[in-house]
Here is the input.
Amino acid sequence: MKRPPSLQALALLFLIPAAFFFPAPADAARRPNVIVILTDDQGWGDLSLNGNGNLATPEIDALARAGARFDRFYVCPVCSPTRSEFLTGRYHPRSGVFSTSAGGERIDLDEMMIGQSFQAAGYATGAFGKWHNGMQHPYHPNARGFDEYYGFCSGHWGNYYDPVLEHNGRLVRGKGFIIDDLTNKAIEFIEKNRDKPFFAYIPYNTPHSPMQVPDRWWNKFKGKDLPMRPTSKKRENLPHTRAALAMCENIDWNVGRILDRLDELKLTNDTIVVYFCDNGPNGNRWNGGMKGRKGSTDEGGVRSPLLVRWPGKIKAGKTVPQISAAIDLLPTLAGLAGIPVASRKPLDGVSLKPLLLEEKSSWLERNIYSHWRGRVSLRTQRFRLDHQGRLYDMVKDPGQVRDASSDHPAIARRLRDDRDAWAKGILPELKQPPRPFVLGHPGSRYTQLPARDGTASGEIRRSNRFPNCSYFTNWKNVEDSISWNVEIPSGGTFEVELHYACGKDAVGSTIELGMRSGNAGAAPGGSLRKKVTEPHDPPLRGADEDCVKRTESYVKDFKPLKLGRMKLSKGAGRLTLRAIEKPGPELIEVRLLFFTRVSD
Here is the structure.
């Protein structure tokens, strides 16, 4: 089995700017700007553009009228795989993405991403929103082609009002509703770089739960009658649908803010704007009668809108009927911008430039594959073969009601063979040993190790079964501990903070953080001990702002506790948080560890 290069072998690579390998062309200033807007859990049907009369999305609809609209565009069933395919132009199993949390969302380090291609071509690059493809450097967006990053790297976030976010690795406090805030930062980036080509990636994190949205939008939908319903009305959670639609209208408003600012800066004609979604809807709601929702490899789980506007270059009101996918966006945008693709690996995607610019070329019939948790379906221009081998004629049967295998036996056999060959050739690439979390990469001063990436022993439990944005609680016994499997590519001394919460009974607890080498029998690495001297027992946040009761964890405002300076040596091992002294019935709750490199 082919193994990816080791972290040590790649450590220096991520200290060298991509432009070193791909010098910026002399005419970089004349290249178009690119803005890519990606929404989270918004289905194909969550736009008035696609016939949904339950809501109005005039700004996004106008974007379609002014550019090209792809009729059959496909993404993955869930978030991080779609992001991976957009960023790399390759199917997500090739990049090592097999989960949405706990490290399985990380893209292999030997993959080159779209930001690196634009960065190498002399573009200013920025990402603003939900990354969801790795938190610690060199998986962090600042190491994967983005000069500027503002947002969060987890799969979802627990509170959308004044949340704790990060800016280029440092923890900061957001301002106001998160989508409005992300838009503000993206607009600031556009304004700052108005005189040179820029690439702005804006991955919004709504309408993903928690279902929070400002009253301006929620009040319109709260209790509203929805005339358009899913095929199975009994399975729809109406309050959830109303909240999702309100969040989609907020997204539309923010898209309008970006487009208006381009007009004001006179950048509209020089800017390619792309809009798409990362999977099917996160609920049973109207979606054009398609089968499947988020998590499904059926049509409704993987069909997304794709809108591309470039005034004067792409014909306004154009509809593209050919099937396409997220893997196509990297080669397409590089082709439109006239820049080379940085990746040395073969792409699975193809450039859609000939379709957008109406260039004469032969367009070949193709298969587009959808995969999640071992289930594989494929789409041709006319047919979908589902993960159980059933064939559907999507022209005659868009809702996937009747298996048409007996009507087209030769096609069914061929597509089953194609699916099996694809799975046999690609899915084994996911079978890799667990990758440790990187601590102290020399490319960044800062490293977060959140509870999401840790494991606990004994009675300690997560605040929720979904790891993203969770914290550890119920720490009652000194025998129990919390640990992180880490790899340190470059040794040094680090200032360490523990973000904690506790009641008065836990004051006086003594906590020890220690590092032990992964080699059997090796001596421990550095360790720190600290006594908790102040209670910090904030209330849970989120319930008052939720439009619908959530399934994920509520959050708290955790307090940073300086543990001291810790010297760590290069190598792999286990970082463990233990209790030495417990004066009360419970110890502290733990959100994350934060490391700042102070010396090599």
